[in-house]
Amino acid sequence: MNFLVVNPWIYDFAAYDFWLKPLGLLYISEVLTYLGHNVTFVDLLDRHDKDLIAKSPPKDKKYGTGKFYNESVEKPAILKNIPRKFKRYGLPLKLFESKLETINKQNKIDAILVGITLTYWYYGGEKTIEILRNIFPSTPIFLGGVYSTLYTEHAENNFSKFKVNIFPGTGIFPLKKVLELLNEELTKLNNFNWFEEIDLTYDFYDSYLTYVVLISSVGCPFHCTYCVTPKMWKFQYRSIDKIINNIEYILKKRPYVKDVVFFDDAFLLRKDIKELLKALSTFNVRYHLPNGIHARRIDDEIALLLKKANFRTIKLGYESYDFNIQKGTGFKVTNEDLVKAVTSLKNAGFDMNDVYAYVLVNLPFQDKENVIQAVDFCHSLGIRVNLNEFTPIPGTVEYNELIKKNVISPNIDPLLLNNTIIPYWSNFGLSIEDLEEVKRYTKSKYSD
Ligand code: SF4
């Protein structure tokens, strides 16, 4: 069969290409290829898309990150009172339409797959599917991803106008359901450990890649009260040989790639992490860990191995200075853990401009002093801070508490749970003034 797989636009108040690649859709496309199907892949967020760069050459920033092409758009009605510009990030509309027209002429597309990650990005998915439906009026469209999994009913109601089939779930479960519905042969997927067997080849891109993103593990053994990862995934890690072969494959085809990003939620928690780090050190690339890694796991030996392998960006999951918050939200880290980890990273020779701690802002009923304490503590250790604005995610303890206390409704439009705008309407967490003050304070701390 001929599948068209589309990574949708982002419609948001802000978005930046901090190593964003549609991993779920890439895995699905690899599995379809493994099964012998043809895949046409359109990534609307590809900053180096060949047609886009003719119109708007991308400016790459540090380690291959950069701004998405964007255009201001009208806000959906529910966001009309938010005093900020709303934008569509990704390929211009006309360019997307002309790509689809070309694809439509070249091949008969049998099915279209779209995935939406962040729940409050469903609007970008909707706008993308509206265009797809215009050009492919009768082709079945299937929607999966985190939004469809956490907000299945909302997705079914919202996308029924485009005759979209919603396929919730993680891994290849939704794909199997889609293939079943299309009466396709599935025996090759019996007892198939897709995470172990499938490489992310990046062969679906014909554009220049400033970085590649991989995952060496899925899931996380911790259970933080604000995080949905452990609810969605069982902790599993890929064998070292497979990871190394995957990188070898990519670098053989694209020897120019200098930045390899691991998007794991629990990169350091595998038992054989030291062996993995030693094996990774054989490649001449820079590695980055943009998701909060576990500070408790970093000792002198791990820090040295990370340094030897040429890891650069390190983001430590810290979240709060307050012991009660640390303990009450999952106890993944303490202040002592952070001090020990930072000391080891310093001793190993890390550039402290590349070492960050995530600090959670706007947790229910948190005050600004609480955030400022965490910022001050990180600053005193000589590391940088990423303020991570809280959003309640269905299935988490924090979300359920807010529902129980009638602070939010279970029928809330996910657009309102965009962390950028929560303080504009909610009465939990910080006011917008306090949030702005905390942001200014953090910026001023690091301005010298
Ligand atoms: S340690 Fe990180 S990934 Fe694991 S549950 Fe906590 S926040 Fe989620």
UniProtKB/TrEMBL annotation:
This is Radical SAM protein. CDD domains: Radical_SAM (cd01335). PANTHER family: ANAEROBIC MAGNESIUM-PROTOPORPHYRIN IX MONOMETHYL ESTER CYCLASE-RELATED, PUTATIVE-RELATED. The keyword S-adenosyl-L-methionine applies. Keywords: Iron, Iron-sulfur, Metal-binding, S-adenosyl-L-methionine. One of its GO terms (cellular component) is cytosol. One of its GO terms (molecular function) is iron-sulfur cluster binding. It holds the Pfam family Radical_SAM. Residues 206-427 form the Radical SAM core domain. InterPro entries: BchE-like, Elp3/MiaA/NifB-like_rSAM, rSAM, rSAM_horseshoe, rSAM_sf. The keyword S-adenosyl-L-methionine applies. Its cofactor is [4Fe-4S] cluster. It comes from the Bacteria.
